[in-house]
Amino acid sequence: MERESGGIGRRWLLGLTGAGLGALAASGLLAACAPPHREEDGGGQGGASPEKVTLALPSSLSSLDVGRESGTLNYAVACLVQEGLLSVSPDGELRPGLAARWTQPDERTYVFTLRRGVTFSDGTPLTPDDVVASVEAIRDPKNTNALAYLYAHVTSVKVTGDLEVTVRLKKPDALFLWTVSPSGLLVSSRAFLKRHRGEVGTGKTLLLGTGAYRVTGFAADDHVLLERNDAWWGEKPGVRTLKLDFVPDAGTRLVAMKSGAVDGALGLASDEARGWESAAEVTYTEDRSVVALAFDTGKAPFDDPRVRRAVAHAADRAGMAEGILHGKAQVAAALPSPGMWGDLLPAEQVTAAYDRIALPAHDLAAARKELAASGHPDGFTAELHYPGSGPQLGKAALALAAELKKIGVTLKVEEITLEQWIAELGSGKFPLQFLWYFPTTGDPAELLDAYLHGEAEATNIARYDQAKVTGALKAATTETDSGKRGALLLEAVTEAAGDLPYLPLWWASTATALSGRLALGGGDGPFALTGPWAARLRSS
Predict the structure, then answer these.
(1) Measured between alpha carbons, how far is 248 from 257 in angstroms, rounded to an integer?
(2) CA distance 420 to 425
(3) N or C: which end of the chain has fewer CB within 10 A?
(4) Are 446 and 440 within 8 A, CB to CB?
């Protein structure tokens, strides 16, 4: 069997084995790259771009290395500097990146042919050995790289030609190509990785890549400064200097915009973005993100299904979507949004299946009845923490606490830092948590393998383990027929829904605010604000 492609759509391979990346997400930026080519108009409309642009990001970074800190803001910066073998278009199609083409001689082998003439921003040429070194750095257990799990099924990565790299797997994996997109691979040089082992991404070493920009300065928790890489193989970015200020406080961000200190902001939550509409051009994009409550099914009181249903009945999900997100969100029926199913299944089949998922409706009488029949009829006390960069989660938590109080349950709500929130995910310390996830691929398995798979100990924060669900997810991993694979994944979704390990609250949109002098061209879609996005900035 041999397949050859210079581009790949969602009909063939969509997904990512596991999903640790999105578990750490806390902004509206995603983690994939789709470079505009020199022969294409990737810059959108408008005239010459300003020489310097300053934008605000809603949270801070302590490292530029996505292997050490895998939040989506880290990817938003790193994908301007580094690239994967494959890239991703704004609407979620895998396309050529550093690899101009690839073949699949058999189900377990992938051969990538690199672009000729690509150089790193320090002037050294990209070689196949640099790709091998980048994968080796991820797989090296001494590096404790957060992306290492993606390569668990890889048996070898070797240079097999002047511009050729061959990857072999232990078993077929219908999702492998996403691993070598920026979701799982950002290439640097062997020399740089060797020279700065253990220190990549700090303010001292920064990053080295082949991308549209190069990092010239980084102050953790304050800002990152980037300069245009004039040697980039893609279309030359219009903006020469890009400064990204880390401004966690929403009010401070808006004041900075109105005063002219920043030219815009990325990753604005829908509830915050309305306040920007008088000061900037605001664009809303469906980002496939999901917010859900995660119940630890192995720890009291949420090991009791009736307690989970009582909480679900107390949650006014429709009121949250309308009142908190101002209608810029859709009440969620499952973890993957309908748009994530791509061409795996017809849209009407997914819609019909989601319509059959009968999640508990907002009904306090039903909530009281479930609680009375549970092992905690007199109520209980629980905590729910949310990251400061997600004020909409805080509002939802307070709304839920008010409703739970009416049935005799005390919910203590606390705002914590993004770093604390990430550290708590899956720690087992708190049996009730928010799942706030921004997918890095266009495939539902990214969420399902991470959060419903009984063997996904690192990411399954509900500690949910149901044999039929896990069996369906395992079968889907090696199934290459899109229809059969989609049916298996949908079976897992519907089977798990009755157990309520998670209560999906909403699927949201992300907002981008730019001053009237700027526009972000290059196409729309859930992956539009990804990869070398700054290369698409132009004067409006």
Answers:
(1) 14
(2) 9
(3) N
(4) yes
For residue 513, give both structure tokens: 């605010």
Q: How many CB atoms lie within 10 A of CB 193?
A: 19
Cα(28)–Cα(395) distance, rounded to whole angstroms? 18
Q: If 0-12 CB within 10 Å is exposed, 13-18 middle and 19+ buried, where does residue 385 land? A: buried
- Nearest CA-CA partner of 49 in 244, 281, 238, 264: 238
Q: How far apart are CA 378 and CA 355, in angstroms?
A: 34
Rounded CA separation 483/346 (Å): 9
Which uninterrupted H or E stretch holds 238?
A: none
Is pLDDT above 50 for 292?
yes
> Phi and psi for 240 in degrees, rounded to 5?
-80, -45
The count of residues in the chain is 540
Read off the tokens for 385.
Answer: 């923490």
To 5 degrees, how large is the angle CA 241–CA 243–CA 247? 170
pLDDT band at 32 (very low <50, low <70, confident <90, very high): very low
Tokens of 18: 């596991």
Cα–Cα distance for residue pair 11/285, rounded to 1 Å? 22
* Dihedral sign, Cα of residue 397, residue 402, residue 405, residue 407: negative
